[in-house]
Design brief:
The chain is α+β, with helices and mostly antiparallel strands. The chain has seven helices and six strands, in the order αββααααββαββα. Helices cover about 50% and strands about 15% of the residues. β3 (about 125-130) and β4 form a beta hairpin. The longest helix has 26 residues, at about 75-100.
Length: about 210
């Protein structure tokens, strides 16, 4: 039997795939933080976050397992890292929503992003490997290691021309974010076979009832 992947990576950017670690969001209004609701959160404990990091390629298997072993003896540090991860995810989502609606993001959300960006940058190192220079992270087993890569991706994305390709899936109870990389800018759904087909089926049923 084929096991259904727990996490999906369809957004086109690591930071957006991180935002999409929910079943969906409804009632989203970036100006009023309490006016949207997360449906089917896929990150409920730190173990979920570590598993996502491994699935996303942010951590390798050894790093993820080492992190989980250490988490048992440092529950306070683990909880702090997990809380920051969810706070970052939702702040970045609201910032993206503001970008889509051409409104200024809340200073509090920008403060979250800049705080995590500063922390990530403090762990970034230029190293020499295989006759070349590459960016790497120190303290690779740190509980907030995943956030560094997510924030690195988010900062690069928001400050690039790719942000103009940001889209939000209009599927019922979805709201996933993605980059429209289609040649004619026609991508509408996070996944055509999921949200797109559901919309087609709903329209078919509505016509049948007329």
């Amino acid at each position: 039997m084929v096991t259904k992947p727990r996490f999906k990576f369809v957004a086109g950017a690591l930071c957006l795939d991180f935002v999409n670690t929910v079943g969906g969001r409804i009632g989203s209004d970036p100006k009023r933080h309490s006016r949207y609701r997360v449906l089917g959160d896929k990150l409920t404990v730190f173990e979920d976050l570590a598993q996502w990091g491994e699935s996303a390629g942010v951590l390798n298997r050894v790093e993820a397992q080492k992190m989980m072993r250490r988490s048992e003896s440092q529950p306070i540090d683990v909880q702090n890292a997990f809380h920051r991860a969810i706070t970052l995810r939702e702040a970045f989502y609201r910032v993206c929503k503001c970008r889509l609606q051409s409104v200024a993001p809340a200073p509090s959300d920008m403060a979250v992003l800049n705080g995590e960006l500063g922390n990530a940058q403090s762990h970034k190192r230029l190293t020499f490997r295989d006759a070349g220079f590459v960016w790497s992270w120190d303290e690779s087993d740190s509980f907030d290691r995943i956030l560094w890569s997510v924030m690195d991706s988010a900062a690069e994305f928001l400050a690039s021309t790719a942000v103009a390709s940001l889209r939000e899936c209009p599927g019922a109870e979805c709201g996933w974010l993605f980059l429209d990389k289609s040649r004619n800018g026609s991508r509408q759904w996070c996944e055509m076979r999921i949200c797109g087909n559901r919309a087609k089926l709903r329209r078919f049923r509505e016509r049948a009832c007329l």
